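Thread: quick sanity check before group meeting

JM: Hey all, I'm pulling together slides for Thursday and realized we never actually wrote out the predicted structure for the chain we discussed last week. Dropping the sequence here so it's in one place. If anyone has concerns about the input, flag it before I start.
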Amino acid sequence: MTTPMRTALLTAVAALATTPALAADLTIYTYSSFVSEWGPGPAIESGFEERCGCDIDFVSADDGVAILSRLRLEGEASPADVVLGLDTNLIAAAVAEGVVQPHGLDTGGYDLPVAWTDPNFVPFDWGYFAFVYDSQAIAEPPESLRALVEDSTAEILIQDPRTSTPGLGLLLWMRSVFGDEAEAMWTELAPRIVTVTSGWSEAYGLFLEGEAPMVLSYTTSPAYHRIAEETERYQAAVFEEGHYLQIEVAGIAAGADDVDLARDFLAYLTGPEAQAAIPTTNWMYPVVMPEGGLPEGFDAPPETPSLLTAPEVVHDNRGAWVDEWLRALSR
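JM (edit): ok, ran it. Output follows.
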């Protein structure tokens, strides 16, 4: 990858087509960075097309939340065959909305911190949310989420939980650590939030431009800078309470024209060929470890408690917790 990360982040959305080709055999809804030139989409597309003798059309949205919103609006008229890019915080909503159907695949054998048995979605990568910081601006990062809120003076960039899976992840991270204190902690943190962006790409691009010394991202983000840019400047702060886990998933759309082909794609996505591309294109951990292990420079997952809220609990409480967040930030 030779294009600087900031350029790719700021131009990816504008460069991608959003209208599916009528001749496609398989229409896949996903997020924009997945199908960018530096994402895993191109390699996975060519690999599966060669195997199936078919044509894939990727249709992109900013984020997993936007994908789900689009599916809701389209309803039964949606051309989607595969939904790729939601996470565990959205799967109960997707099932409740009736936008997916059971995949019928074996769900054993994944390299995940938790067991996986979901009948509607398969995981394709995972990681921990983290605050990435510029080590040239912050010499001693906070060592806990509480310290970030109460003791740090660093300004931060975050994403909106209504439109972004990382933003929703932070909302749930705050609830996991602080419980009913979360609204008060948001109120305390609010003055140091420089910007709330609609998605991850915009926030990370602003971080790289120096708008703030910390940004909500992933523990794996420094691997990009280490491998592609050969710099240790950007690091992830590890918090003693643990980090919220994101597992990204894919499923068969409820109105898929060719369910068998969609199922074959999910099997390919979680197979060794596609999974080998995940670490250095999507910069997340694969759910099936490549035969040679992680690439050099890609650190193993941090030894940290895995925080994860049950999908049904997220579905039942998401609206109230977003309202709590909005109240805190509006004060």
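AS: nice. The two ends are 43 Å apart (CA to CA). Residues 1-23 have pLDDT under 50 and may be disordered.
JM: adding both to the slides.
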